[in-house]
Write a structure and sequence with these properties.
- The chain is an alpha+beta fold.
- It has a three-stranded antiparallel sheet with strand order 1-3-2.
């Protein structure tokens, strides 16, 4: 049987119920832009590489062109990644890089996830 939201959101100071298994403030602070699976994969791949070409990212993530384009655009609109479009001959080439804001947002996101994991382990 699932726990009620009241049980999950209980106060850490409540002597009868004990500490909350998940800190509510950490859940509210999760970056919803990064939290989506494909976007997290994109920004993580870019954090580990200086830059990546569209086709490299698409193949790494095993996704479609359209899916990658939509999610990359959301990250770009948030200022988390940059996109440079060039041509090699007549072939378009799209290169993505993580920005300083993107690296900072990813670090903050990972810190929040680590805090949630720690809270769960302590409950």
């Amino acid at each position: 049987m699932a726990k009620s939201s009241a049980a999950i959101k209980r106060s850490a100071e409540d002597p009868l119920t004990g500490p909350a298994p998940v800190a509510e403030s950490h859940i509210r602070e999760l970056d919803r832009i990064i939290h989506e699976r494909i976007r997290l994969a994109i920004i993580s791949a870019l954090a580990a590489n200086e830059s990546m070409v569209f086709t490299e990212l698409r193949n790494l993530l095993n996704t479609t062109d359209g899916n990658l384009s939509i999610h990359a655009r959301k990250l770009e609109d948030a200022g988390y990644i940059s996109c440079t479009k060039t041509f090699e001959g007549r072939v378009p080439k799209t290169i993505y890089r993580i920005t300083a804001a993107g690296r900072k947002a990813l670090t903050k996101y990972l810190d929040h996830m680590e805090a949630l994991i720690e809270a769960m382990r302590q409950s």
